[in-house]
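Homework help board

Subject: predicted structure for assignment chain

Our instructor gave us this sequence and asked us to write out the predicted structure in token form, then describe one feature. I got the tokens but I'm not sure how to describe them. Can anyone check?
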Amino acid sequence: MNLHEECLLKYLQKPDELSYSTDILKLTNCILEKQFILKNFVAKYPNFNYTDNVR
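My token output:
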């Protein structure tokens, strides 16, 4: 059972906790979105030019 199903089940059992379940879903979606952006849009291997001789 995934998180969305768990939230739906909790809502069906206790409808008064809808706002709590909604907040959990929003937080989970935000985390998933950030992970997607990091994996697909942020450079995995940035190119830095380091030198040993700093003057």
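Reply (TA_rk): Your tokens look well-formed. For the description, you could write something like this. The chain has a mean pLDDT of 76. That's the kind of observation they're looking for.
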